[in-house]
Amino acid sequence: MKIEKLPYFIDLYETRSYTKTARNNYISQTSVTQFINSLEEELQVKLFDRTTLPIQPTAAGTRFYQDAKTLLRQYQRIKEGLAALDRNAALPVRLCYTSKIDLQILLPFVTGFKTRHPDVAVDVEQATFKEASKALWVRRCDAVIGIDFEPEYTGQLESLTMYQGEYQALVPEGHPLFGRDAIRTDELYHYPLVMLSPHVIGRSYEGMLEHARQDGYYPNIQRTANDMDGEMFLILTEGLIGFVPDNYFPQEYAGRMRRIPIEGSHHRFQLEMKYRSGENPSLDLFVEELAAYLKSE
């Protein structure tokens, strides 16, 4: 397998088109076909069902797609790391984050860090809550920022608490609770709710259900969404109540929805950075200065 050719497979999976894949990679369709055929022969599986148009990936193709993206990222970062060592330069800090909130907290610190250490590159990549733990486990990144990590991947890693807070209700204009300054738990659970899908937020979904049970209720989760934008859409179009951390509000929806505290609720969270120390000097420096920064805030 030639790792540098994996983009051919990834593009074919995403576009379902040999023509587009060839154009994206500046090669002929024949070259794409030959690579996919050789890949299937090497792996001893069929990656695509060619009896339909457009072609469709098989179950093996879908599984390999995820692994191929991880393998390609690792290969590219190995090359970057070796090139940095060859230049006697600092290794980059590779961070996986799960939401805009993570970057909002990091931004002022990273700006100062880069001023003090201009030779250290800080690269960021977004992952779902569920993917984040595994991303660190397979060394796709040096550290991950998120909530409710998967313990089988992160149980032995070091942790830095970045923020502790509570979830608040996100209520759309026109909802009976829109004008309230605070919402009681019995009022909250009287109405249908929307949450991010468990396929996206992983353990956090069960955590939210557990918090509701601790409040003494079972939530009426009417809809789930695959991302924050989708959740905002459902809140506004279907009049549902969502949840949002107390340190974040989508300003583009100001006036059309409000973030309202929930009285006496167990809906709390802890935003953490999980990492391995001793493997990347740049990361160790980054974590040391970040811990001092957070302590001073």
TrEMBL record:
Keywords for the protein's UniProt record, in alphabetical order: DNA-binding, Transcription, Transcription regulation
The protein's name: LysR family transcriptional regulator
Homology family: Belongs to the LysR transcriptional regulatory family.
Domain of life (superkingdom): Bacteria
Every HTH lysR-type domain range: 1-58
Keyword check for Transcription: yes
Keyword Glycoprotein set for record: no
Alphabetized InterPro entries for the sequence: HTH-type_LysR_regulators (IPR050950), LysR_HTH_N (IPR000847), LysR_subst-bd (IPR005119), WH-like_DNA-bd_sf (IPR036388), WH_DNA-bd_sf (IPR036390)
Gene3D superfamilies in the cross-refs: 3.40.190.290, Winged helix-like DNA-binding domain superfamily/Winged helix DNA-binding domain
